[in-house]
Specification:
By secondary structure, the chain is mainly alpha-helical. Helix content is 32%, strand content 0%.
Length: 56
Amino acid sequence: MPVIAIASPKGGAGKSTTAVILGTQLAHYGAEVTLLDCGPQPRAGGAAGEHGEDAR
């Protein structure tokens, strides 16, 4: 299983946005995608459409 990491020590560099767009496109073409945002201010969940604890 391939793993793609998007990392940079600089905040505000667009890492979450890049990860969400890349993950969305990979899923569109049939790839199974798991998106983890482990930063101090994770933003990928909201950008990917997650809204609250019950979001699936």
